[in-house]
Design a protein that fits this description.
This protein is an alpha+beta fold. It has a single domain, classed as OB fold (Dihydrolipoamide Acetyltransferase, E2P) (Beta Barrel). Helix content is 17%, strand content 58%. The chain contains 2 helices and 6 strands; from the N terminus they run ββββαββα. A 5-stranded mixed β-barrel has the order 1-3-4-6-5.
Length: 114
C-alpha cells in the first residue's frame, strides 16, 4: 500500500498552470517540523514537494496562502530525468489525492494580536 498523510505549512503562494486543455496542476512545497531537536537544540524541518491536480489544485490556489497549514493525503511517486550534464536525477514527490485546509496564517496572526 502506498499512502502518505502530511501536515505542514505552505512555503510560498500556490501557482496554477494549465497542462493540455483541461488539466490544471499546482506544485507546492510544504514545510514539516521534525518532532525532535538536532545536536544544537533546534527543531529542523523537512520540505516536501507535492503535486496537486485539477479541482484540488484550483481550490488550493484560490484559498491557501504562504504560511497556511494544510493536510495532504496522497501517494509517493518517483520519477527520473536527465539534466543538462546528461546525469540521471531522481525525484520523489507526493501526488495529492485530498487536501484539507487546517489553518490560515492570517487568522493565526489575528488571534495572536487580539
Amino acid at each position: 500500500m502506498n499512502q502518505v498523510i502530511l501536515v505542514g505549512r505552505l512555503c510560498k503562494e500556490p501557482e496554477i498552470e494549465t497542462i493540455e486543455e483541461s488539466k490544471k496542476r499546482s506544485i507546492v512545497t510544504i514545510a514539516i517540523n521534525r518532532s525532535f531537536k538536532n545536536s544544537e537544540g533546534i527543531y529542523e524541518a523537512d520540505f516536501i514537494r507535492c503535486i496537486l491536480w485539477n479541482n484540488i489544485a484550483l481550490n488550493t490556489f484560490e484559498y491557501c496562502h504562504t504560511g497556511d497549514v494544510i493536510g495532504i493525503k496522497g501517494r509517493l511517486q518517483t520519477r527520473n530525468y536527465e539534466n543538462e550534464e546528461k546525469n540521471r536525477k531522481f525525484i520523489m514527490e507526493v501526488i495529492a489525492e485530498k487536501v484539507t485546509f487546517l489553518s490560515s496564517a492570517k487568522n493565526s496572526e489575528k488571534e495572536t494580536k487580539e
